[in-house]
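Hi there, hope your week has been kind to you so far. No rush at all, and the record is pasted right below.
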Amino acid sequence: MVGSHWRGLGLWNLYFISKLMLHWAGVLNFHVLYNLVFAAALLVPLPPLWLHRVRCSVATLAGVALLYYDSWLPPFKRLLAQPELLHFSSDYLLELAVRFINWDLVGAGFVLLVAYLFLAQWLRLTVFSVAALACTALASSFTLPSWLLVQPTSGMQPVYQVADVQHNPDTGVLSRTTQPIQGSPSNSQLTEKLDAFYLDEKTRQTSFPGANESAPFDILFINVCSLSNSDLEVSRLQDHALFKRMDVVFDQFNSATGYSGPAVLRLLRASCGQSSHSDLYKPAADQCYLFQNLQRLGFDTESVLNHNGQFQGFLDELTVQGRFPQPFIPTATRPKLTAFDGSPIWNDYDTLSQWWERRKQSGADRTALLYNTITLHDGNREATADGGGRSAPFTTRAQNLLDDLNVFIDDLERSGRKAVLVFVPEHGAALQGDRMQIAGMREIATLDITQIPVGLRVIGANRKATAQPVHVTSPSSYLALSELVSRLVGTNLFVDEGIDWPELTKNLPVTAAVSENDGTVLLQHNEVPYVRMGNRNWIEYPQ
Protein backbone atom coordinates (compact mmCIF):
# COMPACT_ATOMS: atom_id res chain seq x y z
CA MET A 1 0.00 0.00 0.00
CA VAL A 2 1.14 3.56 -0.72
CA GLY A 3 0.32 4.62 2.83
CA SER A 4 3.01 2.36 4.22
CA HIS A 5 5.65 4.45 2.44
CA TRP A 6 4.75 7.75 4.12
CA ARG A 7 7.87 8.13 6.23
CA GLY A 8 7.21 11.58 7.65
CA LEU A 9 9.81 14.36 7.85
CA GLY A 10 12.05 12.75 10.44
CA LEU A 11 14.94 15.05 11.37
CA TRP A 12 13.67 17.54 8.81
CA ASN A 13 11.04 18.42 11.43
CA LEU A 14 13.85 20.02 13.38
CA TYR A 15 14.89 21.97 10.28
CA PHE A 16 11.43 23.45 9.67
CA ILE A 17 10.62 24.07 13.33
CA SER A 18 13.93 25.88 13.81
CA LYS A 19 13.35 28.06 10.75
CA LEU A 20 9.83 28.90 11.83
CA MET A 21 11.03 29.92 15.28
CA LEU A 22 13.74 32.11 13.74
CA HIS A 23 11.12 33.60 11.43
CA TRP A 24 8.77 34.37 14.32
CA ALA A 25 11.70 35.92 16.20
CA GLY A 26 12.34 38.21 13.21
CA VAL A 27 15.84 36.93 12.39
CA LEU A 28 14.94 34.99 9.23
CA ASN A 29 13.12 36.00 6.06
CA PHE A 30 10.98 32.86 5.67
CA HIS A 31 9.85 32.28 2.07
CA VAL A 32 6.65 30.34 2.67
CA LEU A 33 6.03 28.96 -0.82
CA TYR A 34 9.52 27.58 -1.33
CA ASN A 35 9.52 25.96 2.09
CA LEU A 36 6.10 24.39 1.45
CA VAL A 37 7.35 22.96 -1.84
CA PHE A 38 10.46 21.64 -0.11
CA ALA A 39 8.41 20.01 2.65
CA ALA A 40 6.07 18.45 0.08
CA ALA A 41 9.03 17.04 -1.84
CA LEU A 42 10.30 15.45 1.37
CA LEU A 43 6.90 13.94 2.18
CA VAL A 44 6.12 12.35 -1.19
CA PRO A 45 6.35 8.53 -0.79
CA LEU A 46 9.28 6.91 -2.61
CA PRO A 47 8.96 3.09 -2.22
CA PRO A 48 12.49 2.05 -3.31
CA LEU A 49 14.88 2.55 -0.40
CA TRP A 50 17.72 3.63 -2.70
CA LEU A 51 15.56 6.38 -4.19
CA HIS A 52 14.68 7.57 -0.70
CA ARG A 53 18.38 7.78 0.15
CA VAL A 54 19.15 9.70 -3.03
CA ARG A 55 16.40 12.18 -2.11
CA CYS A 56 17.94 12.65 1.34
CA SER A 57 21.32 13.47 -0.21
CA VAL A 58 19.85 15.93 -2.70
CA ALA A 59 17.58 17.41 -0.02
CA THR A 60 20.58 18.16 2.20
CA LEU A 61 22.09 20.41 -0.46
CA ALA A 62 18.70 21.95 -1.25
CA GLY A 63 18.02 22.56 2.44
CA VAL A 64 21.30 24.41 2.90
CA ALA A 65 20.64 26.50 -0.21
CA LEU A 66 17.10 27.33 0.94
CA LEU A 67 18.33 28.27 4.40
CA TYR A 68 20.85 30.65 2.83
CA TYR A 69 18.13 32.11 0.62
CA ASP A 70 15.87 32.58 3.64
CA SER A 71 18.64 34.31 5.59
CA TRP A 72 19.46 38.01 5.44
CA LEU A 73 22.84 37.23 3.88
CA PRO A 74 23.59 38.83 0.49
CA PRO A 75 22.87 36.82 -2.67
CA PHE A 76 25.53 34.17 -3.24
CA LYS A 77 26.44 35.66 -6.62
CA ARG A 78 27.41 38.82 -4.74
CA LEU A 79 30.05 36.84 -2.84
CA LEU A 80 31.31 35.27 -6.07
CA ALA A 81 31.63 38.75 -7.56
CA GLN A 82 34.09 39.77 -4.82
CA PRO A 83 37.33 37.83 -5.35
CA GLU A 84 39.01 40.38 -3.08
CA LEU A 85 37.66 38.37 -0.15
CA LEU A 86 40.41 35.85 -0.88
CA HIS A 87 42.95 38.53 0.07
CA PHE A 88 41.64 38.86 3.63
CA SER A 89 44.18 37.78 6.21
CA SER A 90 43.55 34.49 8.01
CA ASP A 91 43.22 36.36 11.31
CA TYR A 92 40.49 38.59 9.88
CA LEU A 93 38.63 35.67 8.31
CA LEU A 94 38.64 33.89 11.67
CA GLU A 95 37.38 37.06 13.37
CA LEU A 96 34.51 37.32 10.88
CA ALA A 97 33.64 33.64 11.32
CA VAL A 98 33.37 34.08 15.08
CA ARG A 99 31.01 37.03 14.63
CA PHE A 100 28.60 34.84 12.70
CA ILE A 101 28.20 32.56 15.70
CA ASN A 102 25.27 33.60 17.87
CA TRP A 103 25.79 31.66 21.09
CA ASP A 104 22.25 32.37 22.26
CA LEU A 105 20.91 30.70 19.11
CA VAL A 106 23.37 27.83 19.52
CA GLY A 107 22.07 27.25 23.04
CA ALA A 108 18.45 27.48 21.92
CA GLY A 109 19.18 25.04 19.08
CA PHE A 110 20.65 22.52 21.50
CA VAL A 111 17.57 22.72 23.73
CA LEU A 112 15.32 22.32 20.67
CA LEU A 113 17.29 19.24 19.55
CA VAL A 114 16.94 17.57 22.94
CA ALA A 115 13.22 18.42 23.05
CA TYR A 116 12.74 16.96 19.58
CA LEU A 117 14.54 13.71 20.39
CA PHE A 118 12.52 13.38 23.58
CA LEU A 119 9.07 14.13 22.10
CA ALA A 120 9.66 12.12 18.93
CA GLN A 121 9.41 8.94 21.02
CA TRP A 122 5.66 9.44 21.48
CA LEU A 123 4.48 12.11 19.01
CA ARG A 124 4.32 12.27 15.23
CA LEU A 125 5.98 15.68 14.98
CA THR A 126 5.48 15.80 11.22
CA VAL A 127 1.82 16.65 11.89
CA PHE A 128 2.82 19.66 14.00
CA SER A 129 5.47 20.81 11.48
CA VAL A 130 3.09 20.65 8.53
CA ALA A 131 0.36 22.38 10.55
CA ALA A 132 2.78 25.17 11.52
CA LEU A 133 3.84 25.61 7.89
CA ALA A 134 0.21 25.73 6.79
CA CYS A 135 -0.69 28.30 9.45
CA THR A 136 2.28 30.46 8.45
CA ALA A 137 1.23 30.24 4.81
CA LEU A 138 -2.34 31.24 5.64
CA ALA A 139 -1.19 34.11 7.85
CA SER A 140 1.03 35.51 5.10
CA SER A 141 -1.70 35.41 2.46
CA PHE A 142 -4.78 36.30 4.51
CA THR A 143 -6.01 39.86 4.12
CA LEU A 144 -8.87 41.48 5.98
CA PRO A 145 -11.72 43.02 3.96
CA SER A 146 -11.33 46.76 3.57
CA TRP A 147 -14.49 47.45 5.61
CA LEU A 148 -12.89 45.73 8.61
CA LEU A 149 -9.74 47.86 8.53
CA VAL A 150 -9.42 50.58 11.18
CA GLN A 151 -9.84 54.02 9.70
CA PRO A 152 -7.07 56.58 10.41
CA THR A 153 -7.53 58.92 13.31
CA SER A 154 -5.65 61.99 14.41
CA GLY A 155 -3.33 59.78 16.43
CA MET A 156 -2.44 57.46 13.54
CA GLN A 157 0.02 58.01 10.70
CA PRO A 158 -1.46 56.89 7.35
CA VAL A 159 0.58 55.66 4.41
CA TYR A 160 0.25 57.79 1.27
CA GLN A 161 -0.07 56.80 -2.35
CA VAL A 162 3.48 56.84 -3.69
CA ALA A 163 2.43 57.28 -7.32
CA ASP A 164 1.11 60.74 -6.50
CA VAL A 165 4.18 61.90 -4.56
CA GLN A 166 5.74 65.11 -5.86
CA HIS A 167 9.47 65.79 -5.63
CA ASN A 168 10.91 69.28 -5.26
CA PRO A 169 14.20 69.43 -7.19
CA ASP A 170 15.43 72.39 -5.15
CA THR A 171 14.94 70.79 -1.76
CA GLY A 172 14.98 67.09 -2.50
CA VAL A 173 11.90 66.59 -0.33
CA LEU A 174 9.19 64.16 -1.34
CA SER A 175 5.85 65.85 -0.67
CA ARG A 176 2.75 63.88 0.36
CA THR A 177 -0.58 63.93 -1.35
CA THR A 178 -3.93 63.95 0.39
CA GLN A 179 -4.90 60.43 -0.66
CA PRO A 180 -3.87 58.13 2.21
CA ILE A 181 -4.08 54.37 1.87
CA GLN A 182 -3.97 51.79 4.59
CA GLY A 183 -1.29 49.19 5.08
CA SER A 184 2.26 48.90 3.85
CA PRO A 185 3.31 50.33 0.47
CA SER A 186 3.33 47.90 -2.42
CA ASN A 187 6.42 46.72 -4.24
CA SER A 188 5.59 48.85 -7.29
CA GLN A 189 4.98 51.95 -5.17
CA LEU A 190 8.41 51.74 -3.56
CA THR A 191 10.04 51.18 -6.93
CA GLU A 192 8.22 54.21 -8.34
CA LYS A 193 9.38 56.27 -5.39
CA LEU A 194 13.00 55.24 -5.97
CA ASP A 195 12.79 55.93 -9.71
CA ALA A 196 11.25 59.35 -9.07
CA PHE A 197 14.04 60.19 -6.62
CA TYR A 198 16.82 59.38 -9.07
CA LEU A 199 15.02 61.07 -11.95
CA ASP A 200 14.74 64.35 -10.05
CA GLU A 201 18.29 64.11 -8.70
CA LYS A 202 19.52 64.27 -12.30
CA THR A 203 18.19 67.84 -12.51
CA ARG A 204 20.14 69.14 -9.50
CA GLN A 205 23.53 70.81 -9.72
CA THR A 206 25.77 73.25 -7.86
CA SER A 207 26.57 76.53 -9.60
CA PHE A 208 30.11 77.67 -8.81
CA PRO A 209 31.16 81.32 -9.19
CA GLY A 210 32.77 82.30 -12.48
CA ALA A 211 35.91 83.61 -10.79
CA ASN A 212 37.58 83.32 -7.40
CA GLU A 213 38.20 86.80 -6.02
CA SER A 214 38.72 85.79 -2.38
CA ALA A 215 42.06 85.73 -0.61
CA PRO A 216 44.08 82.56 -1.39
CA PHE A 217 43.36 79.60 0.88
CA ASP A 218 43.46 75.82 0.85
CA ILE A 219 40.57 73.36 1.15
CA LEU A 220 41.40 70.10 2.90
CA PHE A 221 38.90 67.24 2.67
CA ILE A 222 39.55 64.65 5.39
CA ASN A 223 37.91 61.49 4.08
CA VAL A 224 37.73 58.89 6.87
CA CYS A 225 36.80 55.28 6.19
CA SER A 226 34.43 53.63 8.69
CA LEU A 227 33.04 56.31 11.00
CA SER A 228 29.34 57.06 11.44
CA ASN A 229 27.29 58.87 14.06
CA SER A 230 26.30 55.49 15.45
CA ASP A 231 29.96 54.44 15.72
CA LEU A 232 30.77 57.62 17.63
CA GLU A 233 27.98 56.90 20.09
CA VAL A 234 29.05 53.28 20.58
CA SER A 235 32.65 54.34 21.20
CA ARG A 236 31.49 57.35 23.28
CA LEU A 237 33.44 59.83 21.16
CA GLN A 238 30.53 61.95 19.94
CA ASP A 239 31.69 64.80 22.22
CA HIS A 240 35.32 64.73 21.11
CA ALA A 241 37.01 68.13 21.07
CA LEU A 242 37.46 67.97 17.29
CA PHE A 243 33.72 68.27 16.67
CA LYS A 244 33.40 71.18 19.08
CA ARG A 245 35.95 73.10 16.99
CA MET A 246 33.86 72.87 13.84
CA ASP A 247 32.13 75.98 12.51
CA VAL A 248 29.43 73.95 10.73
CA VAL A 249 28.11 70.47 11.56
CA PHE A 250 25.68 68.44 9.43
CA ASP A 251 23.35 66.49 11.73
CA GLN A 252 21.72 64.27 9.07
CA PHE A 253 24.34 63.78 6.37
CA ASN A 254 23.79 60.64 4.31
CA SER A 255 26.81 59.01 2.66
CA ALA A 256 24.41 57.04 0.38
CA THR A 257 26.65 53.94 0.40
CA GLY A 258 28.41 51.50 2.70
CA TYR A 259 31.65 51.01 0.76
CA SER A 260 34.78 53.08 0.17
CA GLY A 261 35.04 53.18 -3.62
CA PRO A 262 31.50 54.41 -4.24
CA ALA A 263 31.76 56.81 -1.30
CA VAL A 264 34.82 58.53 -2.73
CA LEU A 265 33.20 58.72 -6.17
CA ARG A 266 30.13 60.34 -4.64
CA LEU A 267 32.33 62.91 -2.92
CA LEU A 268 34.31 63.63 -6.08
CA ARG A 269 31.03 64.01 -8.03
CA ALA A 270 29.33 65.98 -5.27
CA SER A 271 28.38 68.93 -7.48
CA CYS A 272 25.46 67.05 -9.07
CA GLY A 273 22.50 65.27 -7.53
CA GLN A 274 22.73 61.76 -6.14
CA SER A 275 23.06 59.07 -8.80
CA SER A 276 22.33 55.37 -8.63
CA HIS A 277 25.18 52.99 -7.87
CA SER A 278 25.43 51.81 -11.47
CA ASP A 279 25.54 55.37 -12.81
CA LEU A 280 28.60 56.09 -10.66
CA TYR A 281 30.64 54.08 -13.13
CA LYS A 282 29.32 55.91 -16.17
CA PRO A 283 30.71 59.22 -17.49
CA ALA A 284 29.32 62.32 -15.80
CA ALA A 285 29.23 65.94 -16.90
CA ASP A 286 32.37 67.94 -16.13
CA GLN A 287 30.46 70.28 -13.85
CA CYS A 288 29.59 67.34 -11.57
CA TYR A 289 33.18 66.94 -10.39
CA LEU A 290 33.78 68.98 -7.25
CA PHE A 291 37.57 69.10 -7.51
CA GLN A 292 37.44 70.01 -11.21
CA ASN A 293 35.16 72.91 -10.30
CA LEU A 294 37.73 74.03 -7.74
CA GLN A 295 40.52 73.55 -10.27
CA ARG A 296 38.78 75.95 -12.66
CA LEU A 297 38.83 78.49 -9.83
CA GLY A 298 42.61 78.25 -9.47
CA PHE A 299 43.01 75.41 -6.96
CA ASP A 300 45.71 72.81 -7.48
CA THR A 301 44.25 69.37 -6.73
CA GLU A 302 46.18 66.81 -4.71
CA SER A 303 45.43 63.54 -2.95
CA VAL A 304 47.08 61.73 -0.05
CA LEU A 305 46.49 58.18 1.24
CA ASN A 306 47.68 56.52 4.44
CA HIS A 307 47.38 53.14 2.66
CA ASN A 308 48.49 51.68 -0.66
CA GLY A 309 45.03 51.94 -2.28
CA GLN A 310 45.26 48.50 -3.90
CA PHE A 311 42.25 46.80 -2.29
CA GLN A 312 39.24 46.61 -4.66
CA GLY A 313 41.03 48.88 -7.12
CA PHE A 314 40.54 51.98 -4.93
CA LEU A 315 43.50 53.74 -6.52
CA ASP A 316 42.07 53.22 -10.00
CA GLU A 317 38.66 54.53 -8.96
CA LEU A 318 40.34 57.61 -7.50
CA THR A 319 42.51 58.40 -10.52
CA VAL A 320 40.43 57.12 -13.45
CA GLN A 321 36.79 57.39 -12.38
CA GLY A 322 37.44 60.36 -10.07
CA ARG A 323 39.80 62.17 -12.47
CA PHE A 324 42.37 62.66 -9.71
CA PRO A 325 46.17 62.80 -9.92
CA GLN A 326 48.33 60.05 -8.45
CA PRO A 327 48.26 60.38 -4.65
CA PHE A 328 51.11 60.92 -2.22
CA ILE A 329 51.66 57.79 -0.09
CA PRO A 330 54.28 57.96 2.73
CA THR A 331 55.99 54.68 1.81
CA ALA A 332 59.29 55.81 3.34
CA THR A 333 57.70 55.95 6.80
CA ARG A 334 57.26 52.98 9.11
CA PRO A 335 53.61 51.79 9.13
CA LYS A 336 51.51 52.16 12.26
CA LEU A 337 48.98 49.35 11.61
CA THR A 338 48.45 46.35 9.37
CA ALA A 339 45.24 46.32 7.32
CA PHE A 340 42.71 43.51 7.10
CA ASP A 341 44.41 42.33 3.89
CA GLY A 342 47.95 42.49 5.30
CA SER A 343 48.88 45.81 3.67
CA PRO A 344 50.51 48.68 5.61
CA ILE A 345 48.66 51.62 7.18
CA TRP A 346 50.56 54.75 8.11
CA ASN A 347 49.94 57.10 11.03
CA ASP A 348 47.49 59.90 10.20
CA TYR A 349 49.36 62.78 11.80
CA ASP A 350 52.70 61.71 10.30
CA THR A 351 51.13 61.40 6.84
CA LEU A 352 49.37 64.77 6.98
CA SER A 353 52.46 66.46 8.43
CA GLN A 354 54.63 65.17 5.58
CA TRP A 355 52.15 66.50 3.05
CA TRP A 356 51.92 69.84 4.87
CA GLU A 357 55.69 70.31 4.69
CA ARG A 358 55.53 69.59 0.95
CA ARG A 359 52.61 72.00 0.63
CA LYS A 360 54.45 74.89 2.29
CA GLN A 361 57.30 74.46 -0.19
CA SER A 362 55.10 74.18 -3.28
CA GLY A 363 54.41 77.88 -3.74
CA ALA A 364 50.86 77.28 -5.01
CA ASP A 365 48.31 79.95 -4.07
CA ARG A 366 45.45 77.54 -3.60
CA THR A 367 45.32 73.77 -3.08
CA ALA A 368 42.37 71.41 -2.78
CA LEU A 369 43.43 68.24 -0.96
CA LEU A 370 41.67 64.91 -0.63
CA TYR A 371 43.10 62.89 2.28
CA ASN A 372 41.79 59.33 2.56
CA THR A 373 42.50 57.26 5.66
CA ILE A 374 41.57 53.65 6.49
CA THR A 375 42.84 53.74 10.09
CA LEU A 376 39.36 52.79 11.33
CA HIS A 377 38.64 50.01 8.83
CA ASP A 378 37.38 46.76 10.29
CA GLY A 379 40.02 44.08 10.86
CA ASN A 380 43.06 46.34 11.23
CA ARG A 381 45.78 44.96 13.50
CA GLU A 382 48.53 46.46 15.64
CA ALA A 383 51.97 45.05 16.37
CA THR A 384 52.76 43.42 19.72
CA ALA A 385 56.02 43.45 21.66
CA ASP A 386 56.80 39.85 20.73
CA GLY A 387 56.74 40.66 17.03
CA GLY A 388 53.24 39.34 16.44
CA GLY A 389 49.96 41.18 16.01
CA ARG A 390 46.54 41.58 17.57
CA SER A 391 43.23 43.14 16.69
CA ALA A 392 43.36 46.90 17.24
CA PRO A 393 40.33 48.13 19.25
CA PHE A 394 38.14 50.53 17.28
CA THR A 395 37.73 53.02 20.14
CA THR A 396 41.49 53.33 20.58
CA ARG A 397 42.04 53.85 16.87
CA ALA A 398 39.20 56.39 16.64
CA GLN A 399 40.49 58.31 19.65
CA ASN A 400 43.99 58.45 18.15
CA LEU A 401 42.68 59.53 14.74
CA LEU A 402 40.55 62.36 16.13
CA ASP A 403 43.42 63.45 18.39
CA ASP A 404 45.79 63.47 15.40
CA LEU A 405 43.40 65.65 13.41
CA ASN A 406 43.05 68.00 16.36
CA VAL A 407 46.82 68.42 16.57
CA PHE A 408 47.02 68.89 12.81
CA ILE A 409 44.50 71.74 13.01
CA ASP A 410 46.71 73.33 15.68
CA ASP A 411 49.66 73.10 13.27
CA LEU A 412 47.63 74.75 10.52
CA GLU A 413 46.62 77.60 12.80
CA ARG A 414 50.19 78.17 13.98
CA SER A 415 51.44 78.26 10.40
CA GLY A 416 49.34 81.32 9.61
CA ARG A 417 48.15 79.68 6.39
CA LYS A 418 44.48 80.20 5.58
CA ALA A 419 42.51 77.02 5.03
CA VAL A 420 39.12 75.34 5.20
CA LEU A 421 39.11 71.83 6.68
CA VAL A 422 36.18 69.59 5.72
CA PHE A 423 35.70 66.43 7.77
CA VAL A 424 33.66 63.97 5.71
CA PRO A 425 33.81 60.20 6.43
CA GLU A 426 33.10 57.64 3.70
CA HIS A 427 30.64 55.49 5.65
CA GLY A 428 30.28 53.84 9.05
CA ALA A 429 32.01 50.79 10.54
CA ALA A 430 28.77 49.06 11.58
CA LEU A 431 30.07 48.50 15.10
CA GLN A 432 26.62 47.33 16.14
CA GLY A 433 25.08 44.55 14.12
CA ASP A 434 21.34 44.09 13.76
CA ARG A 435 18.92 41.35 12.77
CA MET A 436 20.05 41.33 9.17
CA GLN A 437 23.78 42.04 9.42
CA ILE A 438 26.53 41.09 11.85
CA ALA A 439 28.86 43.75 13.25
CA GLY A 440 31.18 44.99 10.52
CA MET A 441 28.89 43.90 7.67
CA ARG A 442 27.85 46.77 5.38
CA GLU A 443 26.18 44.97 2.49
CA ILE A 444 22.94 46.85 3.20
CA ALA A 445 23.64 50.55 3.73
CA THR A 446 21.41 51.24 6.73
CA LEU A 447 21.13 54.62 8.44
CA ASP A 448 23.49 53.44 11.19
CA ILE A 449 26.09 53.06 8.44
CA THR A 450 25.32 56.02 6.17
CA GLN A 451 24.54 58.77 8.70
CA ILE A 452 28.04 60.23 9.07
CA PRO A 453 29.49 63.14 11.12
CA VAL A 454 30.33 65.88 8.62
CA GLY A 455 31.80 69.18 9.76
CA LEU A 456 33.70 72.20 8.45
CA ARG A 457 36.31 74.42 10.10
CA VAL A 458 37.70 77.70 8.74
CA ILE A 459 41.31 78.27 9.79
CA GLY A 460 42.92 81.71 9.77
CA ALA A 461 39.79 83.84 9.45
CA ASN A 462 39.74 87.32 10.98
CA ARG A 463 37.12 86.52 13.57
CA LYS A 464 36.75 84.81 16.88
CA ALA A 465 35.80 81.15 16.86
CA THR A 466 32.11 80.61 17.44
CA ALA A 467 31.20 79.22 20.83
CA GLN A 468 29.06 76.52 19.24
CA PRO A 469 28.98 75.14 15.69
CA VAL A 470 26.11 76.06 13.38
CA HIS A 471 24.06 72.89 12.84
CA VAL A 472 22.50 71.95 9.50
CA THR A 473 19.56 69.90 10.73
CA SER A 474 17.85 69.01 7.44
CA PRO A 475 18.56 65.71 5.62
CA SER A 476 21.69 66.37 3.56
CA SER A 477 24.19 64.70 1.29
CA TYR A 478 27.11 65.62 -0.95
CA LEU A 479 25.19 68.21 -2.97
CA ALA A 480 24.71 70.30 0.18
CA LEU A 481 28.44 70.06 0.92
CA SER A 482 29.28 71.10 -2.64
CA GLU A 483 26.88 74.04 -2.38
CA LEU A 484 28.48 75.17 0.88
CA VAL A 485 31.97 74.95 -0.65
CA SER A 486 30.74 76.98 -3.63
CA ARG A 487 29.45 79.68 -1.30
CA LEU A 488 32.74 79.70 0.63
CA VAL A 489 34.92 80.22 -2.45
CA GLY A 490 32.55 82.98 -3.55
CA THR A 491 32.85 84.81 -0.22
CA ASN A 492 35.70 86.90 1.15
CA LEU A 493 36.09 84.69 4.21
CA PHE A 494 39.44 86.09 5.25
CA VAL A 495 38.76 89.75 4.50
CA ASP A 496 35.36 90.41 6.00
CA GLU A 497 35.17 91.19 9.70
CA GLY A 498 33.00 88.19 10.43
CA ILE A 499 31.53 85.12 8.78
CA ASP A 500 27.76 85.01 8.59
CA TRP A 501 27.34 81.26 9.03
CA PRO A 502 23.53 81.31 9.28
CA GLU A 503 23.41 83.04 5.89
CA LEU A 504 26.02 80.74 4.32
CA THR A 505 24.16 77.63 5.47
CA LYS A 506 20.69 78.92 4.64
CA ASN A 507 18.58 76.81 2.26
CA LEU A 508 21.24 74.23 1.51
CA PRO A 509 19.96 71.42 -0.76
CA VAL A 510 17.96 68.77 1.08
CA THR A 511 18.34 65.14 -0.01
CA ALA A 512 16.16 62.24 1.09
CA ALA A 513 17.95 59.34 2.78
CA VAL A 514 18.31 56.86 -0.09
CA SER A 515 21.33 54.55 0.04
CA GLU A 516 22.62 51.95 -2.40
CA ASN A 517 25.39 49.39 -2.68
CA ASP A 518 25.97 47.05 -5.59
CA GLY A 519 22.90 44.81 -5.43
CA THR A 520 21.08 46.41 -2.50
CA VAL A 521 19.12 49.63 -2.04
CA LEU A 522 17.43 51.09 1.03
CA LEU A 523 14.96 53.97 1.28
CA GLN A 524 12.65 55.45 3.89
CA HIS A 525 8.87 55.55 3.56
CA ASN A 526 7.00 57.31 6.36
CA GLU A 527 10.16 56.90 8.48
CA VAL A 528 10.12 53.12 7.94
CA PRO A 529 13.15 51.64 6.11
CA TYR A 530 12.58 49.29 3.18
CA VAL A 531 15.28 47.27 1.45
CA ARG A 532 15.52 45.59 -1.94
CA MET A 533 18.19 42.95 -2.48
CA GLY A 534 19.01 42.16 -6.09
CA ASN A 535 15.85 41.52 -8.10
CA ARG A 536 13.79 40.48 -5.09
CA ASN A 537 10.77 42.38 -3.83
CA TRP A 538 11.01 45.18 -1.31
CA ILE A 539 10.77 44.15 2.34
CA GLU A 540 10.57 46.19 5.51
CA TYR A 541 13.98 46.30 7.16
CA PRO A 542 13.64 44.63 10.58
CA GLN A 543 14.31 46.99 13.46
